[in-house]
Design brief:
mainly alpha; 6 helices; 50% helix; 0% strand
Length: 100
């Protein structure tokens, strides 16, 4: 049995409300929802560290581009680690809270 796309909600809108901990500078090249989704996809695929998540994303870039913007390509492992490490856990949790 295949899983219909209609059954699985798109998680990206939930990530849009997560406060971005980064300063607005010319070096802010990657969208926060893209960084969160890359990390989530990597972890769900069984990778275990930031280098592996970045490598996973590079290998799956064509697939990721089907639903992520990635205006400046795949973030480095350092960017992934730094940004995710600075997220406020409570605010992240509140954005993911779904009421049924």
């Amino acid at each position: 049995m295949s899983i219909s796309k209609a059954i699985l909600p798109n998680p990206l809108p939930y990530f849009e409300c997560v406060p971005d901990p980064r300063w607005e500078t010319k070096n802010k090249l990657h969208r926060l929802p893209d960084i969160i989704m890359i990390t989530l996809c990597g972890l769900l695929s069984g990778v275990e560290d930031w280098v592996e998540i970045a490598t996973f994303a590079q290998e799956k870039e064509a697939w990721l581009r089907r639903f992520l913007e990635l205006p400046n390509g795949i973030p480095s492992h350092d960017t992934l680690s730094d940004v995710i490490g600075r997220l406020e856990p409570k605010a992240f949790r509140e954005c993911l809270h779904v009421s049924y």
